Amino acid sequence: MALNPWLAIIIWGVIIIVMTGPMLTLPIFWSRRKPDPFRDMPFESGQVPQGEARHRLIMQYYPYLLMFVVFDVVGMFLFAWGISFTKLPLESSAFVILFIVLLGAPLGYALKLALNKENW
Amino acid sequence: MVSLAIPSDIAFVILTVVTITAAIMALHAKELIYGAVSLAVSFIGIAGFFALLDAPYLAMLQIAIYVGAIVVLILFTIMLVRRDQAPEIDEQTNSESPVGLWLAGLLALAISGVVALAGASLPTGEPPANLQVSDLGPVLTSQYPVPLIVLALLLSASLLGALVLAKVER
Amino acid sequence: MVVFPPTTPAELVALVIRIITSHTFITVVVFPGFIHLTVVVIFLTWYERKLLARIQLRIGPLYAGGPGGLFQPLADGVKLIFKEVMIPYKASKPLFLGIPVLLVFLSALPFAVIPFGQHWVIANIDVGLVFVFAMTSLFPSMILLFAWASNSKYPFLGGLRSLFQQVAYEIPMWISTLSIVLLAGSLNLVDIVRAQQKIWFIVPAFLSFVVFFISIMAELERLPFDLPEAEPELVAGWYTEASGAIFMLIFMGLYMKLYLMSSLVTVLFLGGWWGPTILPQPVWFILKSLIVATFIIIPRGVYPRIRVDMLIKIGWTRLLIIALANVFLTIILIGTGFMTAWGI
Question: Between chains, do A80 and B57 touch, taking CB under 8 Å as contact?
């Protein structure tokens, strides 16, 4: 049966869920669950936790998240071009090379801004 | 032979239900993080639509960029808001008035009226035959080189703008 | 003849036998499907413990039965199922319970497109490589959500560090793979392996291989990129609060990801299933993947940990530049006709 590959992926996904589902549902029957305020305290190597748990965010690497979004898009466009690189004349690929080179200067400036720790 | 419903129709119905439910839940979630997770689910639903429309590359692009990068940014931004500084949302008026339902009903009526009146001039549901992923590259570089360069400039402008806006002025 | 729907028991049996012996069923369930995946992942947990033990002049698991403690992972799995799942105070239950399952799902899903042999692939889609990358790009957000869901400081900080580290090494991973796509001319993983019949891509794209290898070690959070799990600092990083079945799911998800990344290195750089025909093709593939996994595991016993800000800086500055340089190098290599001797 020549199966549509996407249907094969869906079947594979269903099989994974069906097979790993018991791993989460079996412990409901086989393990004990007695919520205990002392055992359920967040683990801090013995001391009582104080203050809010989700308090401190690390803002130092926030510019890298922004750069990631942009270079995610760039990477996807480059993959689209890379497939047909060997079949295209060099003039067409010159535009994509110009695309990469044009993003070089903003990359450099963004890195310079991101590495400067006082900015964040 | 029993005639089963066409698999793509079943997939379409499932994807529609999932996407719209996730989008509605993203608006109505009490906790913002659950709203962001529902938004990620609706993005995955849209990626499913792209895959159904014979554009698998676009589906993967959608998942990698939207769910992989933008949802991370949204989550990070939600975590920036501290609990004691979050404003109290008064939910009472939203859930009691039927204005939303009335508007949705009117919109559905208008759209079905327009589609019914258009009638024969609608395009038929046949997809263009045999689109390949390798068609993207030549089209992108030979037919649309200028938008490619404009895209590069746009991306760099948005990147630098976001960084300069977000940095701390000392 | 197979009739659907079956009306007599004989027809039902015929239908079931036809399904079980069909190529689709065997690929999805047995090889390279679910049974093979679980067996190899369980073997990898034992293998890592034994290998690290030998490097550290210990013996490792020994008493759980089988030669050299081979049934240790099974014993661990059974033990973890019976343990209590402790949900921390005011943790978000749906996220805490649901994300480990999603982690295993996302680690196992890309195996559908990885070809273990010429005809041993579950789904031969045209965008296989980008499919794998799209699935692995979902990991940082899931780790952040799990770390947020366990309402505790150590996991939250570990989760943030892990997020930034994995995000930093995604882009060098993608750009280094771009050289391979340029050489092979396709995103289909089967075509990429077929293009390596004469020469493995590690030779023309060696810098890419180096960048990719380092990037996947950072993606897998292995030493020397271990800081999100640094034991003296963060207990266990983002999965500190996981216990029992939740921990088992996360553990399996991490080792599945290890096998996935090793298989990806084999497909992209080491020629996939090509090898002298004394051994069948899938055996070569698994052999190469296990060798790559060995080279990923060994640094864990050898190198010290790298500080996280140095790590992120290296990922964004040095590795990205090297990957881009290799893309240009590959363009020059192909453009000057250097690769035509090997059919590219």
Answer: yes
